[in-house]
Structure prediction request, 349 residues.
Amino acid sequence: MLTLLLAFVTAFLLTYALIPVIIHVARQRGLYDKPNERSAHTEITPSLGGIGIFVGMICAVVLWCPALVFSNLQYILAGLMIIILVGTVDDISPIRPRHKLLVQILVAVILIYKAQVQVTDLHGILGIAQMPEWLSFTLSLLAIVGIINAFNLIDGINGLAGSIGFLACVVWGGLFYAGRDMALAVLCAALGGALLAFLRYNWTPARIFMGDTGSMLIGTLAAILSLRFVEMHIPGPIPPVSGLQSAPAFALALLVWPVFDTLQVFVVRLAKRRSPFYPDKNHVHHHLLRAGMSHTRATVLLVAINMFLLLFVKMLDGLGSSVLIALILIIAATLNGVFVYFEKKDQKS
Prediction:
């Protein structure tokens, strides 16, 4: 436990010290995120916060991850380096979405084949348990790339992506520590410390954004932790330390807003005969803002619902993943409908 605390504190202090420096340099060099018709902010703001998050996290991992398990992270760190490089380039000079997608696929392949980050068992979802290699590869690739982009899409208001990422780090860090996966537990502690320091500067009024560098970093790590968590709970003779029987549902509950928001905006865009990658302002957080909520209130509300769904899944764990996943999506869709209702009501008044 001391190791996790040291990793958390180290990442927090380094990121907390680095962010003001990054803000100063970004202002000097004119590296801003300029508001446009899709932006939820109205002032030009530096968007290189992801660099500070990464530096704080990586230094803490290298310093405090036990030498005996550090090798378990080498391919994960290699994938993160590629993601950070592409994210930084995109934040400074935007690159084409398809080029980013190709890099994300490359990183996903590295994680699947070299870091063994893949799901091999669906825990009975749709009647499927152990999967053939081709199906395991395909679903793992889609999950990794999908979650990376889900965090990129949810990062639309102050504090939201960072708060969801921090919640995920706290929950998964505790579970991986209990499951004696020290490498991933340290990774969670380091990212959690870095995110908490970043949030100090990202709450309204935000002095800096995490940019694609930060959102893709969190998304990549969330994908890694999700798949490893699900794999750690494959049904077997020895029950998992967490006692959870519905690990896929619990993982979905932890990432409910990034995943659901991505699904719903894709459905809406396709229904309007637009490309699913067509940018718009129909995200969950946009509905809340148009309903009259501030960035802070919208973020607190969504994170609170996130925590409620985690408790919901834990309490009804015996129902199984298939039922719980359906319930989670129904609850999220219902709440989104409520947000839209209040948005329209506010606009009429």
In short: The mean pLDDT is 90.
